[in-house]
Amino acid sequence: MTIRRLPETLVNRIAAGEVVERPAAAVKELVENALDAGATRIDVIVRDGGRSLIAVTDDGCGMTGDELELAVERHATSKLPGEDLLNIATLGFRGEALPSIGAVSRMTITSRARGADSAWCISVEGGAKGGVAPASHPQGTRIEVRDLFYATPARLKFLKQPRTEFDHAVDAVERLAMAHPGVSFSVSGDARTPIRLSASQGELLDARLTRLGALMGREFSDNAIPVVAERGAVNLTGHIGLPTLNRPTARHQYLFVNGRPVRDKLLVGAVRGAYADFLARDRHPMLALFLDIHPEEVDVNVHPAKAEVRFRDSALVRGLIVGALRHALAQAGHRASNTVGAATLDAFTPRTESPAFAQAPSRFDFQYAPAGARSSHIPRDLAEAVSSFQAPLTGFASQPSARPATAMAFAAEQAPPPDHPLGAARAQLHNTYIVAQTGDGIVIVDQHAAHERLVYERVKQALVDGGVKRQGLLIPEVVELDEPSAARLVARADELAELGLVLEPFGDGCVVVREFPALLGKADIKGLVRDLADELAELGDALSLRERLDAVCSTMACHGSVRAGRSLNQDEMNALLRQMEATPHSGQCNHGRPTYVELKLSDIERLFGRR
Q: What is the rounded distance in angstroms from the CA atom of residue 444 to the CA atom of residue 341?
């Protein structure tokens, strides 16, 4: 075969395959053009998942007839004033979107420039450009894309169901709406309007939170922590969810660079590193972060769809994100998300087993009636049984009490201190859960999870202060292991000594522990050593314990914390509550589970029908 030049229409279709892989990509490109045009309102219509129609209307600066004719040519753009590809200040700059979309669809563009007395339109069908003609249209631009991929039928075979493609288009608009809260958005299609967002008012941080609450839900806005940080010429703002507000996937993590939504491995890794102390590996936080950096410090031209970026100083960016997120989480103190209490109340709410059961007639169907009234729906024999069951007990001077009268009187006399958010301890249930009374409700604390977090933070602070204090064993503890596990522990003996655990080899497959961290108290030393050996097996030899301090300290804290099933007196329970209030991150254990549940008095009253 001889070398030949490809036809222009085929070149455009190849370019379209890189830029417009699905209808959502076309929506994204057109909305980005509207934002670059300075639009304050953008309306999107998507029908049949984008196959039959995509229409984007904005009130931006618009285009003249001459500009309209040039806009559908390849590599024609108004967004690159010079020839410097390292100084990109707009969302779109390649000049490929409109000609690429027009190469695989029937596209019509109608636009009226700001201050012009008339509008113009142009059509592109399968890459064939028509002439510019006068039209009627208000200021701004409307782009209609019909029969997407009709010119490339093979691409249609790979599209998903219309609902799936529609959801992808909605997701693309939502991401851009998060970054531009001052712009009104609407998305409709197939008689549905899933998005209708008005422009948010106020300061940028507050406006973004309002927009995020509208898109991510009120539970996020109610449990979001603001993030504001700066390092050099890099600024980071946004909101992150409390660790107890987490999801099984990273779908609710939104990352932006200079207003551009991206899916960057560096940023995702930085977020995971910041939450490493607070979440299990299979849980992910909810957040939206906006990174503003000088255009010359980031390359946005490494991906045709501009979904990935490359930073000149990636270490600076990663350090900024990790430090800012950890500082924000520390500022939250012992706070846990209110969704924990909501989930608890939801668990208390009785539910009907099934709709069929709810509608099935039954002669045991009870109807609520005021005191003294008798429901006609209760059978006579059952009503008599109920009456006898509810009759007052005889032969007892007083009703039995769950606690001695003196203890109850003591608890009643002691009001919870107003300056203590977690209140005063009132009881311990099943030697595992502490019940405390607050000024406006109750708090239920998981004593093991709470103390585990306290010990974990103390271990980390001790390392920062110069090392963990050790306590010598009067009789050294010999721990039997398999030979590989014992060898791994001995190889890391010096690093373990920094953490307060001193051990030595003791024959084949055994180690002897001579000292252990003093703050662990009466820990299960054998269990601790075995768990550390398993942890080292997962870490491998590539990372030092300092680099994976979170995993090792978490294992040590678990063995040094108050165990479930241990009885605590009232002073011990109150001491635990006060330590939680003074310790950062105490609202969740090292695995992201809540350490306490708070129920407001109004919620409890609602459970009993008092509200």
A: 10
